[in-house]
Design goal:
The strands form two sheets. A two-stranded antiparallel sheet has the order 1-4. It has a single domain, classed as Alpha-Beta Plaits (2-Layer Sandwich). With 129 residues, it is of the alpha+beta class. The protein starts with a helix and ends in a 9-residue tail after the last helix. It has four helices and four strands, in the order αβββαβαα. The radius of gyration is 15 Å and the shape is elongated.
Length: 129
């Protein structure tokens, strides 16, 4: 577990297998990749926004492109496939579902299905659990 993750979630060392518990529902946060990244690359192709790229030492999420998979999946795809659970909420970037959906619509202007789901309020989102 990275030092940054422990600073954000001091109780994380109590979680099984070093996994950090989800933040409270009232505190929805953007996603970042911690220093625990093993550079396996599993996350990169899963991102619907191409927000993940290989950095110098670890993979990186570009916050301006990350929608936390709102509009595409019921949870962050990078978190779902990461074998070391290093895709974690970033406490420095609190973003609402509405903001993330607006970003998804802006990033995918030709995605008719996304627009229809957004208009109907039936888009997938981790906020809807």
């Amino acid at each position: 577990m990275s030092r940054a993750a422990l600073e954000c979630y001091p109780e994380a060392h109590l979680a099984p297998y070093g996994r950090v518990p989800s933040p409270p529902r009232s505190a929805r946060l953007a996603t970042l990749i911690t220093d625990d990244c093993i550079n396996c690359g599993a996350c990169e192709p899963e991102c619907p926004n191409d927000a993940i790229y290989r950095g110098d030492d670890i993979y990186v999420i570009e916050p301006a492109l990350c929608t936390e998979c709102v509009g595409f999946n019921g949870r962050e795809a990078c978190q779902a496939v990461c074998p070391v659970a290093c895709c974690l909420p970033d406490p420095n970037r609190v973003e609402s579902e509405a903001l993330l959906l607006q970003r998804a619509l802006r990033l995918h202007p030709n995605d008719k299905e996304l627009r229809e789901r957004a208009a109907a309020g039936t888009f997938p989102s981790r906020f809807k659990k």
